[in-house]
Design a protein that fits this description.
Blueprint lengths: L5 H14 L7 E4 L10 E5 L9 E7 L7 E14 L5 H19 L17 E14 L2 E15 L1
Parallel strand pairs: 1-2
Antiparallel strand pairs: 2-4, 3-4, 4-6, 5-6
């Protein structure tokens, strides 16, 4: 019996994002970045700077008898874009472009009607929040978006 749908949901989300046409050439990371992060763009699932949290989970009994449980979870993620230049507008625009690809990848559409279920791993998922962060460094400007995707599953 599964204790949580989260591990399967994260695996499915990673697979969906790695296959998303708009993320070709973008690193899609499982968890926090490690090593050299000089990549122009990356998306991290289960990571946001300045926190150790990857996923927030709550559960409750689905019905009397306690045979099944409803699980709600929020998967945290991060988008980072950098080129070494000083064009903040371009970095901010690129960050929101990547966020749009993520949101569209999990939205139901004619081409992927099962997207909100993350390939059947949850009952539904949806983009729920984002926070834009901008930095001006000695190596150019960076823009990032801390994002979250809510999930609901029956276990």
């Amino acid at each position: 019996m599964a204790v949580s749908a989260v591990p399967g949901a994260i695996d499915a989300l990673l697979a969906i994002l790695r296959a998303a046409p708009g993320l070709q050439g973008v690193q899609v990371l499982d968890g926090p970045p490690t090593g050299d992060q000089s990549a122009k763009d990356y998306v991290a699932v289960g990571y946001q700077p300045e926190t150790d949290e990857a996923v927030q989970i709550t559960q409750s009994f689905a019905y009397a008898g306690a045979r099944t449980r409803d699980e709600q979870a929020v998967v945290l993620g991060w988008i980072d874009t950098w080129t070494g230049d000083r064009d903040m507008h371009a970095r901010r625009t690129r960050a929101f472009e990547l966020l749009g690809v993520i949101e569209l990848a999990i939205r139901a559409s004619g081409g992927s009607p099962d997207a909100p279920t993350l390939n059947g791993s949850v009952l539904w998922s949806e983009f729920t929040a984002g926070v834009l962060k901008q930095a001006n460094t000695d190596q150019g400007v960076r823009a990032g978006i801390a994002w979250s995707i809510a999930l609901r599953a029956r276990i």
